[in-house]
Design a protein that fits this description.
Length: 373
C-alpha cells in the first residue's frame, strides 16, 4: 500500500484543468495520458466524476505514487505513463546510473499484474545510452501505438458482435473502466461499445459499478455520458442474473494480462460474469491490445494477483463502511480461464477460443483503420 508521503507527492503535483489550459494550451479533449511541456500530464481518475483535474508529474516518485494510488489506471494507460516515467528518470538522474536503474525498477514494480507497464518501461529504459530525446521518441511510439490499437480493436470487436448476434442494435454488458481513461484514447472493451454506438448498433450499454473503487459508476458512466450513448448502471452482483434473464446479450471486458494459453487476468468480478455468460449462452469477449499478451506466462495460474489491502473494502470515498478493525481480502483482479472465453479481440486479430483456436494458432494481421482517424 502507498504511504502518506506518496499521497502528498501526488497532491503536491495536482493542478486544475483551468490552470493547465491557461498555461499549456490544453483543451478539454486532451488525452488521459500525455507528455506536455517536459512533463507527464494525466487526468486524475480519483477525482472523477466530481471534477476533471489534471496532474503534472515531473519526478519519478510522483509517477510511482500516481500509479499506486490509481490516479492513472488501466493497463495501456499505466504502460504509457511508465514509459514517460522512465524519461523522467533520465532527466532526474542524468549522471547517476545506479540511481536511474533504481528509479526504473520502482516504476516497473508499481503495479505487478498488468504486463504493459513492465514491457513499456523496459523498452524505453533500453534507449538510455541514446539519450533523453531517443527515450522520449520511444515513449511517444508506445503512446501512439496504444491509440492506434484502440481504433483497430473497436472495428474488430464490432464486426465480431455483428457476426455473433446479428446486424442490429445490441445490449452489451461491461465491467470496470476500459475507455479512453484506461487506454489513452477510445479504449478497449468500451472502445468496441463506442464503435457500436457510432454505427447505430448499440441498444444499451450496461456497466457494473465495480466495487470496491467504483470504476464503473465513476468512470465508465462518465465516459458513456460524454459519448452520448444509452446506458444503465447495475450493482456488481446483478451481472450474472441480468445475463441469465436475457437483459444483456454479450459481455465485453478488458484484460490486464493474457497468458499464453488464453487465460485472462482482469478486474475482479470478470470471472463471475464469465460464469454467468456461460450459463446464459451469451458471448464473453475479451478485448485487449497485443501488448497485453504475455507469452512468457504459460497460464493464468502464474499471474501475480495484486491485493490492495483492506482500506478500499471497509471504506469508500472517505466513508467508513465496516467496523474499524475489520480485516478484508481485496484482490484487484481475478483470472478467467480460456474455456469460458468466446473470443479474444486484439488490434491485429480475433482468436475464437470457442472454436478451439489458440493464440499460437492465429497469425497477426494488419491493424484496421477507421475513416474517422
Amino acid at each position: 500500500m502507498i504511504n502518506q508521503s506518496q499521497r502528498n507527492l501526488v497532491t503536491a503535483a495536482m493542478v486544475s484543468l483551468r490552470e493547465l489550459s491557461d498555461n499549456l494550451g490544453i483543451s478539454s479533449a486532451v488525452r488521459s495520458v500525455d507528455w506536455i511541456d517536459d512533463a507527464l500530464v494525466i487526468i486524475d481518475q480519483r477525482k472523477l466524476p466530481d471534477e476533471v483535474t489534471y496532474l503534472r508529474l515531473e519526478t519519478v516518485d510522483e509517477v510511482v505514487a500516481a500509479i499506486k494510488t490509481l490516479a492513472v489506471r488501466g493497463a495501456p494507460s499505466i504502460g504509457v505513463a511508465g514509459a514517460f516515467g522512465v524519461a523522467l528518470a533520465c532527466k532526474e538522474f542524468p549522471n547517476d546510473r545506479p540511481g536511474f536503474v533504481q528509479a526504473v525498477e520502482s516504476i516497473r514494480g508499481a503495479r505487478p499484474t498488468a504486463v504493459n507497464l513492465a514491457r513499456s518501461v523496459d523498452l524505453v529504459a533500453k534507449r538510455v545510452d541514446d539519450g533523453l530525446d531517443a527515450m522520449l521518441d520511444e515513449a511517444r511510439i508506445i503512446r501512439d501505438d496504444e491509440i492506434a490499437a484502440c481504433w483497430s480493436m473497436g472495428i474488430n470487436g464490432a464486426e465480431l458482435l455483428v457476426e455473433l448476434l446479428g446486424n442490429r442494435p445490441q445490449r452489451l454488458l461491461t465491467i470496470c473502466n476500459t475507455g479512453g481513461l484506461a487506454a489513452v484514447e477510445r479504449g478497449t472493451a468500451l472502445g468496441v461499445i463506442q464503435t457500436m454506438f457510432e454505427r447505430g448498433l448499440l441498444e444499451e450499454a450496461l456497466a457494473t459499478e465495480t466495487r470496491p473503487l467504483l470504476q464503473g459508476s465513476r468512470l465508465t458512466a462518465w465516459e458513456l455520458e460524454r459519448m452520448g450513448a444509452p446506458f444503465r448502471l447495475l450493482v456488481d452482483a446483478a451481472g450474472p442474473f441480468v445475463l441469465a434473464q436475457g437483459e444483456a446479450e454479450a459481455v465485453l471486458t478488458g484484460a490486464d494480462r493474457i497468458a499464453a494459453n488464453g487465460d485472462t487476468a482482469n478486474k475482479v468480478g470478470s470471472f463471475a460474469l464469465a460464469l454467468g455468460a456461460r450459463f446464459a449462452g451469451a458471448p464473453f469477449i475479451v478485448v485487449a491490445p497485443e501488448s497485453s499478451i504475455d507469452e512468457a506466462t504459460p497460464s493464468g495460474a502464474m499471474i501475480e494477483i495484486e491485493d490492495r489491502g483492506p482500506a478500499e473494502v471497509v471504506s469508500a470515498r472517505g466513508l467508513q463502511l465496516a467496523p474499524e478493525a475489520t480485516r478484508a481480502l481485496n484482490p484487484a483482479f481475478d483470472v478467467t480461464p480460456a474455456e469460458l472465453i468466446t473470443a479474444i479481440v486484439t488490434d491485429r486479430r480475433v482468436v475464437r477460443l470457442d472454436r478451439g483456436e489458440k493464440l499460437s494458432d492465429v497469425p497477426l494481421g494488419e491493424r484496421r483503420i477507421s475513416a474517422e482517424q
